[in-house]
Amino acid sequence: MGGVREKKKRQTRKAILDAAITLFASKGYEKTSMEKLAKAAGIGKGTIYRYFHTKSEIFLAFCEEELDFLRQEISQKTDTHKPLLETLVDIFMTNFQYITRNNDFGRVYLRELVFPTKLTVDRTKEMDNRFIMFFIPFFEKAQKRGELRQDLELLFAIGHFYSLYLLTLSAWYSGKLLEEEDVLMLLRMLFKQALTGLAPGPSPSQQLPIANEH
Amino acid sequence: MGGVREKKKRQTRKAILDAAITLFASKGYEKTSMEKLAKAAGIGKGTIYRYFHTKSEIFLAFCEEELDFLRQEISQKTDTHKPLLETLVDIFMTNFQYITRNNDFGRVYLRELVFPTKLTVDRTKEMDNRFIMFFIPFFEKAQKRGELRQDLELLFAIGHFYSLYLLTLSAWYSGKLLEEEDVLMLLRMLFKQALTGLAPGPSPSQQLPIANEH
DNA sequence: GAATAAAAATGACCGCAGTCATTTTTTGTA
DNA sequence: TACAAAAAATGACTGCGGTCATTTTTATTC
After folding, report:
1. Residue-wise pLDDT tens digits, B7-37
2. What CATH code is assigned to B7-51?
3. Which of A18, A181, B127, B164 is the 20 to 30 A CA-CA neighbour of B135?
4. For strand C, is any atom closer than 7 Å to the CB of B39?
5. CA/C1' separation A47–D19 (Å)
6. Architecture of the domain delimited by A54-196
7. What is the pLDDT of residues B86-105, one digit of tens each?
8. What distance in Å separates residue A164's CA from the closest CA in chain B?
9. pLDDT tens digits, residue range A4-33?
10. Is A82 helix (H, G, I), strand (E, B) or coil?
11. CATH-assigned architecture of domain A1-51
């Protein structure tokens, strides 16, 4: 039968990821060499490359699992009836705390996620998708509650907030924000700005978003 | 006299950057080794590291000059009386075209600029500042024309649009946008969203932004 | 079970970024 | 100009990420 091979492959993959978690956590990302990683996983160095394209892809795979878990936790503790602004600030702050728990990890992760290469683009797309999917219910509810314009494409609304989150992360990595509190304040401020809009009071037609003509 | 040394250092620095421009342009960033770069600059490999911390910093320095030039060009051809939305779309699109002229260059540049390491953070801060300074006059005029809320901190308004620009770039590098036209459309859409706001019509008080109470 | 083909594992090897002990050049001083 | 001290330049060296020809393991066929 042919199931043996598949099973072994899954085991090896798992072994690599387990070794990665251990070594990345104890030695850091840069200081963990592929050779040591292979040793720790009980395989040869070349074998790793039959499971992952690059070192950073291993790291992404590792993050993927962690983030899935993190999102589960967030989902549970998040009150879906709070205003969108507060909900988003909470969620993104939790994400921020997690990602920057180790600054270097976070940088590697973000660089790869936001500006992927051809080798990692598939994985990052997948991660992006999960990220977006996670937010959809919150936005749908907010829209139903009337906190968001009715004519809004949710995907773009989510992207909008996500982009402001990225800016905040960038500011953090550029050393413009030194305390977690600064991060919180900037994030909230930008989110408010996004909701209110940068232009002065809107055109009257927008008072009633659902305006069927024809 | 002590001026000789300084002069030589400036020359060497220039030689490194010149060699970098030539080699990066002809061979690409990754394929240009520090050894070849040193040879081309007529110096030893170790010497380079007395002028730059890392290879990517050389690249940033190279970009810095190029972008200064690009901004000068943009300044000249940009009509300051056009609506802010159109102006911003134009400027960011020009930036986009330049940055992604070579996709790999752009990725290196963006990764380093948006998520810098300690070794490059000073340089990226400087670049950030120039970037922001460049935009200030456009935003000031727009605010005076009444296209932006009067109570707006310009820095955050600029950051807001910049962040949406980054999102668009990220989408490009993730392969979600394949044509320049898609980039343009997404950018314009997000910018409109930012101006209008994601929330439904505002409270009446915002109809007259300058509302002195007391 | 033997023979053959296909898939997987391997580690010697390559090229490169960055380091550092040593050498070379410049500056300050008598 | 001679000499010592400081600054700058250097390239052999290190460790690493990634490759690939070769070996080992697994599946298939008779």
Report:
1. 788 899 999 999 999 999 999 999 999 999 9
2. 1.10.10.60
3. A181
4. no
5. 12
6. Orthogonal Bundle (1.10)
7. 999 999 999 999 999 988 89
8. 6
9. 677 788 899 999 999 999 999 999 999 999
10. coil
11. Orthogonal Bundle (1.10)
